[in-house]
């Protein structure tokens, strides 16, 4: 995806609620290393304004007045294959990521408008999407539990904890800080988790994306 060392990440916001759009624009514009290049409220405006190569990551509301944010994301990604996409929704619709066409599936994130998402989580998700990673809403992940008989259910408690933090966008160093363990220990847990889930080291596929999507696929709301 994009190379964050070449300059600020160019971000666009597509959100039909003026107040929420303004809040997103204000937050992102005030963040070092990010530059908001467009903030619009409809699919039509987004298609017109977001020229190929003009933006590194786009934040998309799923429900827009003249169309669907996911379909818009697919269109924009096919015009700019390196584009990162972060979906926002008022509903728990993370599983929609599992239905994305294979050619555009990497580099999508999902955050809920109604969860306790912080500015830190938002900015982290934007940066992750821009480099091709998949970030899922951490508050929603906490409510999920592995499905019986799944590969995710075979993970140790620590491996599952590491997987959930990885899917929330934390680096190995960040996971180590959160859990109070060394970065090497985190990598050991990640390697064990990959082995259990059957995730290989194919350089054409981002294993962290594969792991996040597997977590999404093989978990469900806790009873």
From TrEMBL:
<dbReference type="InterPro" id="IPR000792">
    <property type="entry name" value="Tscrpt_reg_LuxR_C"/>
</dbReference>
<dbReference type="InterPro" id="IPR001789">
    <property type="entry name" value="Sig_transdc_resp-reg_receiver"/>
</dbReference>
<feature type="domain" description="HTH luxR-type">
    <location>
        <begin position="148"/>
        <end position="216"/>
    </location>
</feature>
<dbReference type="Pfam" id="PF00196">
    <property type="entry name" value="GerE"/>
</dbReference>
<feature type="modified residue" description="4-aspartylphosphate">
    <location>
        <position position="61"/>
    </location>
</feature>
<dbReference type="InterPro" id="IPR011006">
    <property type="entry name" value="CheY-like_superfamily"/>
</dbReference>
<dbReference type="GO" id="GO:0003677">
    <property type="term" value="F:DNA binding"/>
</dbReference>
<dbReference type="GO" id="GO:0006355">
    <property type="term" value="P:regulation of DNA-templated transcription"/>
</dbReference>
<dbReference type="InterPro" id="IPR058245">
    <property type="entry name" value="NreC/VraR/RcsB-like_REC"/>
</dbReference>
<dbReference type="InterPro" id="IPR016032">
    <property type="entry name" value="Sig_transdc_resp-reg_C-effctor"/>
</dbReference>
<keyword id="KW-0804">Transcription</keyword>
<keyword id="KW-0238">DNA-binding</keyword>
<keyword id="KW-0597">Phosphoprotein</keyword>
<keyword id="KW-0805">Transcription regulation</keyword>
<dbReference type="GO" id="GO:0000160">
    <property type="term" value="P:phosphorelay signal transduction system"/>
</dbReference>
<feature type="domain" description="Response regulatory">
    <location>
        <begin position="10"/>
        <end position="128"/>
    </location>
</feature>
<dbReference type="InterPro" id="IPR039420">
    <property type="entry name" value="WalR-like"/>
</dbReference>
<protein>
    <submittedName>
        <fullName>DNA-binding response regulator</fullName>
    </submittedName>
</protein>
<dbReference type="Pfam" id="PF00072">
    <property type="entry name" value="Response_reg"/>
</dbReference>
């Amino acid at each position: 995806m994009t190379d964050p060392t070449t300059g600020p990440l160019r971000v666009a916001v597509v959100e039909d609620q003026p107040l929420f759009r303004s809040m997103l624009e204000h937050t992102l514009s005030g963040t070092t290393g990010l530059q908001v290049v467009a903030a619009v409220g409809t699919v039509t405006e987004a298609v017109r304004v977001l020229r190929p190569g003009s933006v590194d990551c786009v934040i998309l509301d799923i429900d827009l007045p003249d169309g669907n944010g996911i379909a818009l994301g697919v269109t924009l990604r096919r015009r700019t294959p390196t584009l990162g996409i972060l979906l926002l929704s008022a509903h728990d619709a993370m599983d929609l990521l599992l239905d994305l066409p294979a050619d555009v599936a990497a580099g999508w994130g999902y955050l809920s408008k109604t969860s306790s998402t912080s500015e830190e989580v938002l900015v982290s998700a934007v940066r992750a999407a821009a480099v091709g990673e998949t970030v899922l809403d951490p508050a929603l992940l906490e409510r999920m539990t592995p499905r019986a008989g799944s590969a995710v259910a075979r993970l140790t408690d620590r491996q599952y904890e590491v997987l959930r933090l990885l899917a929330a966008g934390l680096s190995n160093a960040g996971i180590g800080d959160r859990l109070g363990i060394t970065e090497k220990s985190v990598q050991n847990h990640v390697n064990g988790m990959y082995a259990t889930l059957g995730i290989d080291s194919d350089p054409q596929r981002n294993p962290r994306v594969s792991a996040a999507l597997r977590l999404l696929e093989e978990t469900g709301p806790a009873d």
